[in-house]
């Protein structure tokens, strides 16, 4: 996809760059066997000249100066020129090459544990060599003076470079020297002409942005007088330019995606006079003026919380527009997102349109299915069920119901987005636990075009709230609705961190809960011994608990089980036949068994913070006081690692999903927090949302004006930074 206004310039492939190494250019068009280095370049995403130019160094080496040994301090990374005065291979403590060099100011031993005859040849007595490495001082085996272990070296002489030498992020199959050459050539060829209009370069910024080419040239090859700390903390003006560029590209592409959506058409669901067409005979209508939506509200066993009412109104307002909704509904675990989704479907179906609800696991999809048919079938709605595991006949029937429009609502797993699924008139697609789905899947759901080329409205639900800074950047093209209160009558969950050595006490506690008629979850991180060295697996725990709790139904649920078996176990637990459910993280999302009051998480130190919070949210759903026990084990270590401790501490200190998300972000950083898969947005490589708030504000201010008044430049800017990835942002 190449947006209009994109420069017609052809991006150089690596083959072209490597052309000077012998491959005649005429052969570039033909597919050739790629060298490991070329493959590695592609794997790193370095395809175009501009990609190479934007591949910035991790750090630098200073090869611009020769240091006198006398002046070098312990631990310094130095470059010296010296004469070899002695060379020997010794065998104590193990085979090694020791070479003594003298630069006139002092001597030093170069030590090599791995070496080739060619090393020995270059480093023969009398040779003058240029050596770079870390100086280590003091006495060591053999009692020589100072040493360098495995320094790099070459014969002395030759010019000293005028700039620091870049060290790039790379992989083993891509040697630094090769990458340096490729980057240099990319930098020379890339189109780095200015894309940011002059008037924005110093708008509301402490210092004007520098020129992009100059900034890049500097970052790749800084002059030796630079204060290294300004490169390390990225406060140098050259870095500011790069970060501003990157943030601007992100804002531009998201804004463009949002505007692109605004130009699309979706079924506008009229405001008032909505009817349930499936019940036009009036049979299930309770009153002549009662919409399906109102009927559902009346049938609910509870009243909506004010927060639920608010988000319902926000969604309703979107559904009445002819622009596709693109809304994220976020609400802590247990905040009651399902009923909000159900009410939205009632709006659509009442107006005669179809809806689809997709969940990441079959267990979760089935729970939705049960809950929603319980609410909607009495109102005359037919629901179709679609999963990968169902029988061909059942599936054919479901597909027919969906195609004919008889099924107003389709619930299922990924099966919902398969090609064979044809809707009659899909108006609303809902994705539960959206972070479990990839961008491609979201795109596929949206591409289930409805009548007349219209797009369905899209509602995504998540229990992992997005911290504000991320919402402003990664999710700038999403509207967000937030359920910020739990339904009344929930008792807070007491969280305890317990050493694994006290397992027996925990089992005692389980007994207590069971005696009170409550149920218990026990979550383990892995299911197979082969996958880890020392984790106690779910199977073993299941056996141990069964033995410790005679007469109690103890179920086992893990991801390798056949779906039918999983379902059977889950329904036994839901019905209360099983008292304890030992499970891997398959229950992480969405499972709703209000009678469960105790959650034990084994090896809690191995889970991420958001995951722990999601798991804990499985209890505390009913009125009974609930507890969560985080069992940890330090293995051979005397104590837990720092981040694990922080995570467990955060779990004890707060139950607020937003606070948890904030801390998670703090502990993990946005890259990991989002995951490219989850966000769909390209992750920021250079800018840091926590510290670059001023640049983010700048980019947010500039993007709309630039799209309006400098559309061509905006496209070039997006293309420069995102290349083909911009398409993903529309998901
Ligand atoms: P989540 O937001 O985690 O998906 P659910 O939709 O599964 O939460 O709701 C959790 C539980 O709370 C369900 O049993 C649901 O029926 C119940 N619930 C939802 N809304 C309310 C409400 N307003 N009052 C009381 N209970 C509610
Ligand atoms: Mg849910």
Summarize the structure.
The chain has four domains: 14-60 and 168-226, no CATH class; 65-155, Beta Barrel (OB fold (Dihydrolipoamide Acetyltransferase, E2P)); 234-278 and 292-489 and 702-731, P-loop containing nucleotide triphosphate hydrolases (Rossmann fold, 3-Layer(aba) Sandwich); 493-654, Rossmann fold (3-Layer(aba) Sandwich).
Q: Into which percent range does the helicity of residues fall?
A: 25-40%
Q: Identify the bound ligands.
A: adenosine-5'-diphosphate, magnesium ion
Using only C-alpha atoms, the radius of gyration works out to: 32 Å
Which CATH architecture of the largest domain would you pick?
3-Layer(aba) Sandwich
From the helix content, strand content and strand pairing, which structural class follows? alpha/beta
Number of structural domains:
4
Cα separation of the termini:
15 Å
Low-confidence runs: 1-29, 272-288, 527-535, 675-682, 726-731
Number of helices: 24
Largest sheet: 7 strands, parallel
CA-based shape: globular
Report strand order across the widest sheet.
Answer: 11-12-10-13-14-9-15
Mean pLDDT: 83
User: What is the count of β-strands?
Assistant: 21
Within CATH, the superfamily of the largest domain carries the name P-loop containing nucleotide triphosphate hydrolases
């Amino acid at each position: 996809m190449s947006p209009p206004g994109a420069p017609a310039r052809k991006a150089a492939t690596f083959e072209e760059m490597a052309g000077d190494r012998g491959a005649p250019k005429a052969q570039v068009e033909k597919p050739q066997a790629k060298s490991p280095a070329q493959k590695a370049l592609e794997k790193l995403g370095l395809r175009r000249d501009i990609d190479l130019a934007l591949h910035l160094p991790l750090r630098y080496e200073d090869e611009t100066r020769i240091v006198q040994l006398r002046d070098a301090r312990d631990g310094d990374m130095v470059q010296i020129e010296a004469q070899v005065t002695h060379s020997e291979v010794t065998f104590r403590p193990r085979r090694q090459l020791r070479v003594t060099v003298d630069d006139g100011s002092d001597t030093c031993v170069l030590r090599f544990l791995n070496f080739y005859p060619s090393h020995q040849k270059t480093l023969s007595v009398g040779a003058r060599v240029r050596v770079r490495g870390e100086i280590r001082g003091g006495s060591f085996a053999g009692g020589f003076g100072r040493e360098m272990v495995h320094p790099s070296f070459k014969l002395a002489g030759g010019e000293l470079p005028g700039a620091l030498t870049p060290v790039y992020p790379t992989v083993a199959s891509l040697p630094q020297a090769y990458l340096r050459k490729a980057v240099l050539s990319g930098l020379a060829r890339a189109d780095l002409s200015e894309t940011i209009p002059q008037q924005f370069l110093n708008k509301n910024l402490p210092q004007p942005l520098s020129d992009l080419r100059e900034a890049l040239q500097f970052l790749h090859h800084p002059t030796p007088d630079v204060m290294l700390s300004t490169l390390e903390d990225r406060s140098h003006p050259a870095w500011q330019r790069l970060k501003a560029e990157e943030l601007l590209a992100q804002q531009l592409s998201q804004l463009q995606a949002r505007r692109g959506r605004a130009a699309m058409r979706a079924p506008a669901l009229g405001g008032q006079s909505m009817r349930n067409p499936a019940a036009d005979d009036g049979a299930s209508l309770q009153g002549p003026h009662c919409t399906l939506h109102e009927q559902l509200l009346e049938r609910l066993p509870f009243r909506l919380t004010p927060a639920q009412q608010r988000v319902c109104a926000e969604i309703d307002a979107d559904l009445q527009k002819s622009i596709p909704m693109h809304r994220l509904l976020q609400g802590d675990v247990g905040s009651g997102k399902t009923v909000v989704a159900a009410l939205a479907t009632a709006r659509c179906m009442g107006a005669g349109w179809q809806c689809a609800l997709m969940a990441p696991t079959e267990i979760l999809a089935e729970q939705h299915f049960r809950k929603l048919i319980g609410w909607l079938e009495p109102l005359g709605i037919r629901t179709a069920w679609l999963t990968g595991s169902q029988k061909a006949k059942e599936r054919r029937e479901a597909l027919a119901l969906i195609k004919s429009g008889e099924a107003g609502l389709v619930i299922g797993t990924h099966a919902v987005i398969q090609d064979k699924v044809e809707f009659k008139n899909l108006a609303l697609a809902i994705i539960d636990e959206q972070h479990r789905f990839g961008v491609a899947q979201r795109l596929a759901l949206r591409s289930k075009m409805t009548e007349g080329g219209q797009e369905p409205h899209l509602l995504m639900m998540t229990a992992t709230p997005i911290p504000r800074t991320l919402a402003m950047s990664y999710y700038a093209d999403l509207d967000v609705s937030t359920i910020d209160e739990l339904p009344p009558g929930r008792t807070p969950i007491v969280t305890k961190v317990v050493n694994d050595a006290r397992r027996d006490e925990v089992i005692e506690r389980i007994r207590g809960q069971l005696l009170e008629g409550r149920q218990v979850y026990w979550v383990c991180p892995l299911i197979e011994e082969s996958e880890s060295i020392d984790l106690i697996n779910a199977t073993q725990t299941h056996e141990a608990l069964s033995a410790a709790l005679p007469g109690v139904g103890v179920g086992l649920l893990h991801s390798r089980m056949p779906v039918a078996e999983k379902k059977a176990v889950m329904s036994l637990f839901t019905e209360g036949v099983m008292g304890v459910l030992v499970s891997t993280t398959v229950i992480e999302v969405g499972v709703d068994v209000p009678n469960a009051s105790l959650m034990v998480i084994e090896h809690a130190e191995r889970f991420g913070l958001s995951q722990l919070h999601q798991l804990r949210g499985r209890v505390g759903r009913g009125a009974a006081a609930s507890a969560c026990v985080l069992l940890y084990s330090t293995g051979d270590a005397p104590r837990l690692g720092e981040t694990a401790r922080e995570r467990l501490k955060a779990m004890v200190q707060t139950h607020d999903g937003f606070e948890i998300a904030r801390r998670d972000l703090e502990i993990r950083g946005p890259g990991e927090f989002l995951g490219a898969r989850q966000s769909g947005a390209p992750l920021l490589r250079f800018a840091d949302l926590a510290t670059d708030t001023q640049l983010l504000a700048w980019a947010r201010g500039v993007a709309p004006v630039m799209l309006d008044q400098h559309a061509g430049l905006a496209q070039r800017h997006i293309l420069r930074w995102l290349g083909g990835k911009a398409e993903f942002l529309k998901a």
